[in-house]
Design brief:
heterodimer; A: 113 residues; mainly alpha; 5 helices; B: alpha+beta; Penicillin amidase (Acylase) alpha subunit, N-terminal domain; seven-stranded antiparallel beta sheet; 23 helices
Chain lengths: 113, 809
């Protein structure tokens, strides 16, 4: 239950932060999520990773659909990703990974052990 | 224990953020991944939908309201209440669509590409600085800013561009900035000058002086005159009015310097291919269906994306003009207004000389000139290099110009130094020409506008609603003695320098000729009675004759007829050479493939249409033939240059025993018949190899494989197209070059009508539907109506969105 709460919280917070501030503020959002919900380390990590990965994926997908994939396919071919599917995956991982570690850090700071 | 865990986890987090927040070079350079892939600010934000929204912006520096209406082609129609606001808005609006292109082109002109693309481009940058591109732009800037009118134009254009740049944050940056990880810098008036010098370099730096000097030493003067006649035996100059040049010409000094005897082993720069050229013509009302003149223009350039041209409509109480502009330069360059239309093709003229410099000593502080030692100036050029240390280069300037080649650049010898004299180094103010052309009402105004024009020399075609048509070959041309400028010159003698220039009123021009049309296609400019010596790297020999033939035959001409002519695929070169080539072949000796090729060639109608296989076989044959004939040049191991297409065919026809038809590498003595046979076999086997590789028939468009490449040479942002034509054909689309803007203007008294198209789109953004939307119509010879109106209200129905610019408080 706490996992879900942390994830939703992180998505919301990171969305707000990212809307106004540079990309790396996602680490701050995920850190706060990890700290507030104080889940077990790896659960917290997964939550952060999933939250921002999902956030970035959804935002990218939203733009992609709105613009009929006009740029997705081109950029996918500029990088070794080649296909739009892998480009979405890469986008999600690039956002998710630092968020996961930030969330892990947050939960470790809070935890008493 | 906990503290260790926290520290490790924190370290990984910070490390990851750091890693993803900056660019790296992992074999290939990669952008900062976090920034770039962030869907809130990164590249995803560059994808835009086809329905832009209306906007209202407050612009500081604007004096009155400006309305920018975009039509369905994303052409901005700019309605301003005064000229200052108009040019500010042009700068602003152009930057919205083309900022990255504007900047990278001026960086290229200035020799600053390595700063953004890395050390591989340093040689290019050094070349640009050593050619004095910045020096030329500075001279132009001074002249531009010394005239209050042109200064106001450029100041406001620059301010407009900067207002746009200042409004940007990372998420708004054009895609390429994000990919290459840099930011736009402030625009300057100098960049406007650099952009025009960039064009001058493409069009007016043609020369083969080093190559000619080498070939003089290799083959001797008599052979050279056969290989490179001053004037090829092919008719139809741009202006043909023998005996009518009644002015008193300037006579050049006699006693020019002797011919240079040496071989020069330096590596000259890659030259602009002869595919750079253009067509323009104007037909008088006596030949058209409406009784009004029609003017056409299609400049042939390296086809690239973002597109070279940007269509714009400029309206203020002082002007109503529309046409193609160059992103980075104010005003319309090839277009029309309510009274006139004009267009440009490149004027073929030798405007470059190389001077061999004798320095006093290694310090290069002084050099010889008429027995005295003259002081040289040295300029230290600093190059920033992405991912490397700054590089410093010392460039020595003589009174001729910069010393381009010396021991540190493109050659080994310590004794040979070559200074570069280029007409575009001289101060000039072309912006005034275009400003005045945009506002011209008649032939007198057109002539007055052209008096300001220096470089790059162009054939300016003109037509007016009042019925006048005209052509003027405008530029600044040195008065040359016979053969002067063909070879490297002795820089220590002032007698070999440019002493005078042809006065403007003595330039080649004509108005309302009897034949009812004027035309130009980069051919020899004028009949033999024109009193000045004219030289150039090469002249076009085929397009111009086809155009004149068709224009001569046509009656009751409609704009559609002329669109058809712009897209005409008739291969006059093949028509004149293929029957001759085929007559040399012994048809009994063919293998099966050659038999088939022969049949295809025999039945070909000389049209380079999309489907024509004959065109592919002919081209493959030609491509095999040229290096076989001119193998003497390739085996010389110094820089040389092949003779022209026309002269090659002329020699095959008229001098079949010419010594160059022998292959150097074989013991036998070949004749033209054997060379044609061998190249035919080679051409056919090349086609067979192509067929196997591509698994299809060699239809012309597929075989040619025309390509419109992104400026960064990124394949995913580029397009292969299916289109006919070729160089030497009116529809001049070769593999990489072609008609970069096709315009047809009917100058009717009831209102000027115009159509245009170019192979690209108004937006430079690869994430916009307007990045490439005109490519396909262009390949199908389709045109778009130019909505040439006088108020935004008249655009109702064609309007896509509107941007209102208001003065900021």
């Amino acid at each position: 239950m706490n996992f879900l709460k942390q994830t939703l919280f992180t998505i919301a917070l990171c969305f707000i932060l990212q809307y106004f501030l540079p990309w790396w503020t996602l680490a701050l959002g995920a850190f706060v999520g990890g700290y507030v919900f104080a889940n077990n380390g790896w659960i917290s990590f997964l939550s952060g990773l999933l939250a921002v990965g999902l956030l970035w994926f959804s935002m990218a997908l939203f733009i992609d659909i709105q613009t009929q994939s006009i740029l997705t396919e081109k950029v996918a071919r500029i990088f070794p990703t080649k296909t739009p599917a892998l480009l979405f995956l890469l986008t999600s991982i690039i956002g998710g990974l630092p968020a996961g570690f930030a969330a892990l850090t947050g939960s470790l700071v809070k935890s008493k052990r | 224990m906990r503290i260790i865990k926290v520290s490790v986890s924190l370290l990984i987090t910070v490390g990851l953020v750091y890693f993803l927040n900056r660019g790296w070079n992992l074999g290939a350079p990669i952008p900062p991944l976090g920034k770039f892939f962030d869907p809130f600010h990164g590249f995803w934000q560059n994808a835009v939908s086809s329905k832009p929204s209306n906007k209202s912006l407050a612009i500081p520096g604007l004096t009155q309201e400006v309305i920018v209406s975009y039509d369905s082609l994303r052409v901005p129609h700019i309605f301003a209440k005064n000229n200052d606001d108009l040019f500010l808005a042009q700068g602003y609006v152009t930057a919205i669509d083309r900022l990255w292109q504007m900047e990278i082109q001026t960086h290229a002109a200035a020799g600053r590409i390595a700063e953004f693309l890395g050390p591989a481009r340093l040689d290019f940058d050094r070349r640009q600085r050593r050619l004095g591109m910045g020096f030329a732009a500075q001279n132009a800037l001074q002249k531009m800013e010394s005239d209050p009118i042109s200064k106001a134009i450029v100041d406001h254009y620059t301010r407009g561009v900067n207002l746009y740049i200042n409004s940007l944050s990372y998420e708004d940056y054009p895609f390429e900035y994000k990919l290459l990880d840099y930011s736009p810098e402030p625009w300057t008036n100098l960049k406007c000058a650099l952009l025009l010098k960039n064009m001058a370099q493409t069009l007016n730096m043609g020369e083969k002086d080093l190559e000619m000097t080498n070939m003089l030493a290799l083959f001797g003067k008599d052979v050279l005159d056969v290989l490179y006649p001053d004037r090829e035996p092919v008719g139809d100059p741009i202006i043909d009015k023998p005996g009518k040049w009644s002015f008193k010409p300037i006579v050049p000094d006699t006693g020019r310097s002797a011919l240079p005897p040496e071989l020069i082993s330096l590596k000259p720069f890659e030259k602009s291919p002869p595919d750079v050229g253009s067509n323009n013509w104007a037909v008088s009302g006596s030949k058209t269906a409406t009784g009004s003149p029609i003017l056409c223009n299609d400049p042939h350039l390296n086809l690239s994306l973002p597109s070279i041209w940007y269509i714009v409509h400029l309206n203020s109480p002082d002007v109503n003009t529309m046409g193609a502009s160059l992103p980075g330069s104010p005003a319309v360059i090839s277009g029309f207004n309510d009274s006139i239309a004009w267009g440009v093709t490149n004027a073929q003229r030798d405007l470059v000389d190389w001077y061999k410099i004798t320095f006093k000593d290694k310090s290069k502080k002084e050099y010889q000139s008429d027995g005295h030692w003259k002081s040289a100036k040295t300029v230290i050029e600093k190059f920033l290099v992405k991912g490397g240390q700054p590089f410093y280069d010392t460039v020595t300037y003589t009174h001729h110009g910069p010393v381009v080649f010396d021991e540190s650049f493109h050659q080994e010898s310590e004794s040979a130094h070559f200074a570069f004299r280029w007409v575009a180094h001289d101060a000039s103010n072309e912006i005034m020409t275009f400003y005045k052309l945009n506002r011209a009402d008649n032939h007198r105004d057109y002539m007055e506008a052209l008096d300001h024009y220096v470089s790059p020399a162009q054939n300016f075609v003109f037509a007016c609603v009042n019925g006048d048509i005209a052509m003027r070959i405008q530029g600044k041309y040195p008065v040359r003695g016979k053969e002067e400028g063909k070879f490297i010159l002795d820089g220590s003698k002032t007698s070999s320098e440019w002493k005078a220039f042809i006065p403007n009123e003595q330039n080649v021009m004509d108005k309302n000729p009897e034949r009812g049309f004027v035309s130009s296609a980069n051919q020899y400019p004028v009949d033999a009675t024109y009193p000045y010596y004219i030289g150039a790297t090469s002249y076009e020999a085929y397009r111009n004759r086809r155009i004149n033939q068709v224009l001569g035959e046509l009656k009751n001409i409609t704009p559609k007829d002329l669109m058809k002519l712009q897209n005409d695929n008739y291969n006059l070169k093949a028509a004149e050479s293929l029957p001759l080539f085929l007559s040399h072949l012994d048809t009994t000796q063919f293998n099966d493939q050659e038999k088939k090729a022969h049949q295809i060639l025999m039945s070909w109608d000389y049209f380079n249409t999309i489907e024509a296989e004959g065109a592919s076989y002919y081209e493959a044959w030609w491509d095999a033939l040229m290096p076989m004939i001119w193998d003497e040049m390739d085996s010389a191991h110094v820089a040389t240059r092949y003779p022209t297409t026309f002269n090659t065919i002329y020699l095959i026809k008229n001098q079949p025993a010419f010594s160059f038809f022998d292959l150097v590498g074989t013991p036998e003595k070949e004749t033209v018949t054997e060379i044609l046979r061998k190249s035919f076999s080679k051409g056919v086997s090349n086609i067979e190899a192509w067929k196997i590789k591509n698994k299809k028939d060699p239809q012309w468009a597929a075989f040619k494989d025309s390509f419109i490449g992104h400026l960064l040479r990124l394949e995913p942002l580029s397009y292969h197209i299916i289109h006919g034509g070729n160089h030497d054909i009116v529809n001049a689309n070769s593999r990489t070059h072609g008609p970069s803007w096709r315009m047809v203007v009917s100058l009717e008294k009831t209102g000027v009508k115009a159509w245009g198209v170019y192979p690209g789109g108004q937006s430079g953004n690869p994430g916009s539907p307007f990045y490439n939307n005109m490519i396909e119509p262009w390949t199908r010879a389709r045109y778009f109506t130019m909505h040439f109106v006088t108020s935004p209200q008249q655009l109702t129905g064609f309007e896509m969105s509107s941007t209102q610019l208001s003065p900021a408080k």
